[in-house]
Design goal:
7-stranded mixed β-sheet; alpha/beta
């Protein structure tokens, strides 16, 4: 009997799933080991900072003296081994947190340098790559970028550039975004930061850590990054935090970010939590396990689609830097079909079929499957991609491995029905 029949998943796909899971047992065990280490890290941070029920409380208005907010930021600083942290629901996304950080650190005539190539689409108008009257460029901030070479940093160009120019901030985006490159490992981040600091100790190294938290045992702040940014509707929210983002790093830089987020003179002392503290704490507590489930879902996706003849990146047995899995379809129709299958396998809005459309911050039409409890949450199983060559589906998330796998099987079945 096909146990997947109640979800209308074919026997062919069910049998293929069993074969894949048998092959992946040892890899899943490695994921579990990382999960246990990061769970110990989180639990230790909770205990060290003496979390208690009073920290679940809420503030309104200005948000003065919010003890829950303060302990959350201490916990994030402990986990990331930084001097300070800014963790706020007032930051609506990872891109908003990155924008806050960049505007906080840069002044007119300062130079921002990306050494991981073109940043994610939603930062183009923030920086001024795409014209916007509110961009960094409009305030006189200069921008340049150095592309990766064979998925690694171009050390020769970086070294020469730093010797010829006074760079204020270097930005590194670890996850691939909507590009075709590989995501950047923590080992590569550590190596390039050491190289940078040997040339210029004053340059601020900022790392976009979205999708990467708890994938390994170290974070960028542990290998020399001055400031690290991420979203709470991705890895560290555990699928429970309803919104928010974090910035962790040097105390002086965090103070600047706080004053940019609110206003000079009040900075981090204001910002009501409106009842969100418990959700942020609980989401962080579950995050190591949820990230592990997302990783297993990505690994399973990679193997089953490779067996069906599709190009995937990374492959199932490659080391991973984030929770994102690329499926390269090379045609528009299969990309749309797969995303519609992910939607059909979701708990929310499964009766609806996503279609390509325009989205704020993106130049191409986007198709986005996200039947999630939190709008835009990409730690929940989701799949999206721009309608442009080579037609890549960027899949991420899975609150539990079981739900993630079932969603993928529904999408695979959707593809096979077209044959």
């Amino acid at each position: 009997m096909n146990s997947y029949e109640m979800l209308e998943i074919s026997e062919r796909v069910a049998k293929l799933a069993n074969v894949c899971e048998e092959e992946l047992k040892n890899i899943y065990k490695q994921v579990d080991e990382v999960c246990e280490y990061n769970s110990m890290k989180v639990l230790s941070a909770f205990q060290k900072n003496e979390v208690n029920e009073s920290h679940f409380g809420s503030t309104s208005g200005y948000g003065y003296n919010d003890v829950g907010r303060e302990v959350i930021e201490k916990i994030f600083a402990t986990i990331f081994k930084t001097e300070d942290a800014l963790v706020r629901s007032q930051m609506v996304s990872g891109s908003h947190a990155l924008s806050t950080c960049l505007f906080a650190l840069l002044r007119p005539s300062d130079l921002l340098l990306s050494i991981s190539g073109l940043p994610y689409d939603t930062l183009h108008e923030v920086i001024g790559i795409k014209e916007n009257h509110s961009s960094l460029k409009s305030f006189g901030v200069l921008y340049d970028q150095i592309d990766l070479v064979d998925d690694d940093f171009d050390y020769e160009k970086i070294g020469a550039y730093l010797k010829e120019h006074k760079v204020k901030v270097i930005e590194i985006q670890r996850s691939k975004g909507y590009s075709t490159r590989k995501s950047i490992s923590i080992e590569s981040v550590e190596k390039v930061i050491r190289f940078i600091k040997e040339i210029d100790k004053e340059v601020i190294v900022m790392v976009d850590n979205c999708y990467c938290e708890f994938v390994g045992m170290k974070e960028p702040s542990e290998v020399g990054a001055d400031i690290v940014v991420g979203s709470l509707i991705k890895n560290l929210g555990g699928g429970i935090a309803p919104n928010g983002a974090y910035i962790v790093g040097r105390k002086d830089l965090i103070e600047l970010c706080g004053e940019r987020l609110t206003l000079p003179g009040e900075g981090r002392e204001v910002g009501p939590t409106l009842g969100i503290n418990k959700s942020i704490l609980q989401g962080l507590f579950f995050a190591p396990s949820v990230v592990a489930s997302s990783l297993k879902t990505a690994i399973f996706t990679s193997l089953i689609l490779e067996k069906l003849g599709y190009d995937v990146e990374p492959r199932y047995n490659e080391e991973r830097a984030d929770i994102v899995e690329n499926i390269i379809f090379h045609n528009r129709e299969d990309l749309i079909t797969y995303c519609q299958g992910i939607q059909a396998g979701s708990p929310i809005d499964s009766a609806f079929a996503p279609i390509p459309g325009d989205m704020p911050g993106y130049e191409d039409e986007i198709i986005m499957a996200s039947g999630s409890f939190t709008q835009g949450s990409s730690i929940e199983l989701s799949c999206d991609g721009p309608l442009r060559e080579p037609f890549i589906a960027y899949q991420q998330g899975g609150l539990t491995y079981e739900y993630g796998k079932l969603g993928v099987l529904k999408a695979v079945d959707n593809l096979l029905e077209k044959e």
